[in-house]
Amino acid sequence: MESIDKVKQDAEKLAAAKEAVKLVKNNDVVGLGTGSTATFAIKELAERMKNGLQITAAASSLKTEEIASSYGIPILKLETLGSIDLSIDGADEFTESLNLIKGGGGALFREKIVASLSKFSVIVADSSKKVDTLGAFTVPVEVVPLALQYVSDQLEKAGGSGILRKREGETFVTDNGNYIIDANFGLIAEPAELAFTLNQIDGVLAHGLFIGLTSKVIMARAEEILVFE
Ligand code: 5RP
User: Fold this and answer.
1) Residue 139 C-beta-side C-alpha neighbours within 13 Å
2) 35 in helix, strand or coil?
3) Which helix (H) or strand (E) holds 19?
4) Does domain 139-207 have CATH number 3.30.70.260?
5) Positive or negative, the Cα torsion across 163, 165, 171, 174?
6) Which of 35, 41, 96, 223 could form a disulfide with 88 if both were Cys (CB 3.0 to 4.6 A apart)?
7) CB of 105 closer than 6 A to ligand 1?
8) What SS3 state is found at 107?
9) Quick one: fold of 4-131+212-223?
10) What is the pLDDT of residue 81?
11) What are the tens digits of pLDDT across the range 72-88?
12) What is the per-residue pLDDT across 132-154, written as a single tens digit (0 to 9) for each?
């Protein structure tokens, strides 16, 4: 993961978001991701709506719903949706094979549902997010609270060392009322295999390995836009 300063990083996030929002068409149902890069895309969508674009949207978190609603973007209930035309979300890490780690913002479960419902799923990223091998960023694992100890033990058996996520000294609680264990597996040579293993653990609602869910990554690097698909 490259290190870049925040101003440059935000400029790249904005550039990638603008490029992705160009893909949105009139009357699309748009999946809205969570996090700072996705928020740039939401603002950009709101700008296009001022110029006549008509869309409805599905939000991948309560925070995103709040932001999108504040810009007047009509939000549909995720539970009523059979499909989403196009989703735009960020990532914590991605590889050229379009595998991701997500969930730095804690919205991994809804983000995965949005990505799974999407006919076309676009990830927007600054250049720090591209890696050769996933795993420098820990894998967020959303855990039903009563299974915390059990899941921690299972993660350890799977080769991961986990830390319960905290915010300002308090246990972080997701939009779904669950906890997050940030699990370090080192560099992940076989992400699909690890995803399969994590899927088998009772008490895991979702994990941050997004395998085969992404149609395209749009990454900005300085003035350049790079597309991986
Ligand atoms: C939230 C996510 C975000 O997409 C990810 O953390 C990237 O965030 P940002 O765009 O702020 O760097 O997965 O759960």
Assistant:
1) 34
2) coil
3) helix 6-21
4) yes
5) negative
6) 41
7) yes
8) coil
9) Rossmann fold (3.40.50)
10) 96
11) 999 999 999 999 999 99
12) 999 999 999 999 999 999 999 99
Strand order in the sheet with 209-210: 93-94, 100-101, 209-210
Q: In what order do the strands lie in the sheet with 118-126?
A: 56-59, 29-32, 84-89, 118-126, 216-221, 224-228
79 is catalytic: no
- How many angstroms does the Cα of residue 156 sit away from the middle of ligand 1? 25
Is residue 140 in contact with ligand 1, taking CB distance under 6 Å? Answer: no
Q: Is the pLDDT of residue 40 over 90?
A: yes
Q: Are 88 and 33 in contact (CB under 8 A)?
A: yes
How many Å lie between the centroid of ligand 1 and the Cα of residue 140?
11
Q: Which of 92, 129, 176 should be mutated for ligand 1, with most atoms under 8 A from CB?
A: 92
Q: Is the pLDDT of residue 3 over 80?
A: no
Query: In 3D, which of 122, 183, 109 has the Cα closest to residue 152?
Result: 183
Domain parsing of the chain, residue ranges: 4-131+212-223, 139-207
Is the CB–ligand 1 distance for residue 111 below 6 Å? Answer: yes
Whole-number Cα distances in Å, 24 to 11, 12, 54, 89, 110: 21, 20, 10, 13, 21
Determine whether the shortest distance from the Cβ of 90 to ligand 1 is under 6 A: yes
> Quick one: pLDDT at residue 2?
53
Q: Euclidean distance between the first and final Cα of the chain, in Å?
A: 20
Lookup result for tokens 């999946």: 31
In which element (H, E) is residue 182 found?
strand 179-184
